[in-house]
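Section 5: illustrative case.
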């Protein structure tokens, strides 16, 4: 059959078959399919002369090799992943119309990617660093990406700080050293942005180096909105609880682990049939409760540095997910996966959290740079909806799903079908603004409550000692005493005990407190002085 239709059928049914490809099934050939007698056959003038430009085989080989690397992720570059499924155990259709949470026993295919944050793609898995925890749910209503971390809070609540913060976690522009050898930038940033303290306490404590990826929880961190079929909505915070429990590695132990410790652990556990599982749970809150929370406890639901009190807002379980399949081709199935917090199916919406709002833009933007404009068409990213979907996006590099002869405009000759909106737009988009924006850059006494509870109630005495050692070790390689004095003052606001112990460990006397300190990243101390 010489028709183009026959060719297309031959070509595009092959992704699934190619995943299982073995060398014994293939004949060595150049990229246009011409068989070659041997890979080491180079055409040259005579025995020892220069090479020939006509040698397509060599040019083909070298020019493809030259382009093997795509840009690595600007953050979270080192990672591991696997495939599996989510199963709904306790439907939440009363509060959300999200298809994935609607039916007991219904399964949804997923791919998960775990990562460290600051290091490059070959960096050490056991770094003291938050861990990324992303889940791509291939729901029948479109893909939903939960792009979470293993900590419920973050270093900042003002998205404009993110590139600054990340740069201080990466290599120095001049010395090219990381903060393992020179922590000056690291402490400069943190000692100027005290709202980071809750995350710093977690990072420097036992949870700072989880034991691989199977033994850690995941947290959305951001407040989201759950919208039901009547268009009513509540705020929600998603938790992914490891059903293996949690385990950590001490600073000392981390030095004895291999660079790919977490990759090996996850891959081998799945190969052995020990499939890791997480329970998916939601805290929910009405808009009215959110206002009360601000009035009574000064916790703003759009503030990523704070958590929702669990006693007032208990978790409600909706299902579990299991990772039971390793990737067959790491690059195609894990490196090219593209998570994006703005991939949300009906029933799930973003809140006004400004950090989340910025992320809605940043991820698809970076994917177009890292992978290309048609990144959604790659097999690992392609949606697997319960309906055939089409739109008016066309062309661009590597357009595989270019939608055939379908009109590329809203045609009246060949009209596209629409699914009516399930909820009332006015209702779902009604906003609770609160004071999220006005207090973003001000440090408040409440910022220290949760870190204080960690120190006083969660850490036992050996954990406190490990914490002090971790922080003091990190401070040893800081070149500016001033940053240490400032950071000790921030720790003093948490608990004077931390400051005293750090002063002893470092031999540096910290400032008394932050009231009279100036911060380049915030209003001054507890006062509303924005003059800096
Ligand atoms: C990865 C931006 C905050 C979790 C990334 C990437 C960018 C980015 C550009 C690389 C994506 C890629 O190349 O595929 C930002 C910005 C933030 C922010 C601008 C704040 C303004 C956060 C927060 C969390 C988070 C608060 C967690 C709650 C992640 C994770 C990944 C990631 C898990 C790795 C995704 C993967 O495995 O492919 N972020 N991020 N980020 N980010 Fe963020």
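Designed sequence:
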């Amino acid at each position: 059959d010489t028709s183009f239709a026959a060719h297309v059928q031959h070509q595009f049914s092959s992704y699934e078959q190619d995943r299982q490809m073995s060398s014994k099934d293939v004949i060595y050939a150049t990229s246009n399919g011409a068989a070659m007698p041997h890979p080491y056959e180079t055409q040259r003038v005579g025995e020892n002369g220069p090479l020939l430009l006509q040698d397509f085989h060599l040019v083909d080989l070298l020019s493809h090799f030259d382009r093997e690397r795509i840009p690595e992720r600007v953050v979270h570059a080192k990672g591991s992943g696997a495939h599996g499924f989510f199963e709904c155990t306790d439907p939440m259709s009363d509060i959300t119309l999200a298809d994935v949470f609607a039916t007991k026993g219904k399964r949804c295919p997923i791919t998960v990617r775990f990562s460290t944050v600051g290091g490059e793609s070959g960096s050490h898995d056991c770094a003291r660093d938050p861990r990324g925890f992303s889940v791509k749910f291939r729901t029948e209503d479109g893909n939903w990406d939960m792009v979470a971390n293993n900590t419920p809070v973050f270093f900042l609540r003002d998205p404009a700080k993110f590139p600054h913060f990340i740069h201080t976690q990466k290599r120095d522009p001049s010395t090219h050293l990381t903060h393992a050898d020179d922590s000056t930038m690291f402490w400069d940033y943190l000692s100027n942005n005290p709202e980071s303290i809750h995350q710093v306490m977690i990072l420097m404590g036992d949870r700072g180096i989880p034991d691989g990826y199977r033994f850690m929880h995941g947290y959305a961190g951001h407040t989201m909105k759950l919208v039901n079929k009547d268009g009513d909505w509540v705020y929600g915070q998603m938790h992914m609880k490891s059903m293996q429990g949690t385990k950590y590695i001490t600073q000392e132990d981390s030095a004895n682990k291999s660079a790919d410790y977490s990759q090996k652990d996850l891959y081998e556990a799945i190969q052995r049939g020990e499939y890791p599982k997480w329970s998916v749970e939601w805290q929910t809150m009405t808009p009215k409760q959110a206002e009360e929370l601000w009035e009574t406890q000064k916790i703003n639901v759009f503030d990523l540095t704070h958590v929702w009190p669990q006693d007032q807002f208990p978790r409600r379980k909706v299902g579990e997910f299991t990772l039971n399949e390793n990737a067959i081709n790491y690059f195609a199935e894990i490196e090219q996966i593209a998570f994006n917090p703005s991939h949300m199916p009906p029933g799930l919406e973003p809140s006004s959290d400004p950090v989340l709002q910025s992320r809605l833009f940043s991820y698809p933007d970076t994917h177009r740079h890292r992978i290309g404009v048609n990144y959604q068409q790659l097999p690992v990213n392609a949606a697997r909806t319960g309906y055939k979907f089409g739109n008016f996006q066309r062309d661009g590099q590597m357009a595989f799903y270019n939608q055939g002869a379908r009109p590329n405009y809203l045609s009246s000759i060949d009209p596209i079908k629409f699914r009516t909106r399930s909820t009332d737009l006015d209702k779902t988009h009604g906003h609770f603004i609160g004071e999220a924006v006005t207090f973003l850059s001000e440090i408040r006494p409440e910022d220290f409550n949760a870190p204080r509870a960690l120190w006083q109630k969660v850490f036992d005495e050996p954990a406190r000692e490990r914490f002090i050692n971790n922080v003091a070790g990190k401070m040893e390689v800081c070149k500016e005493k001033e940053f240490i004095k400032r950071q000790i003052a921030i720790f003093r606001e948490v608990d004077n005990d931390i400051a005293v112990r750090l002063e002893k460990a470092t031999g540096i006397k910290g400032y008394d407190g932050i009231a009279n300190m100036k911060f380049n990243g915030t209003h001054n101390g507890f006062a509303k002085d924005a003059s800096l």
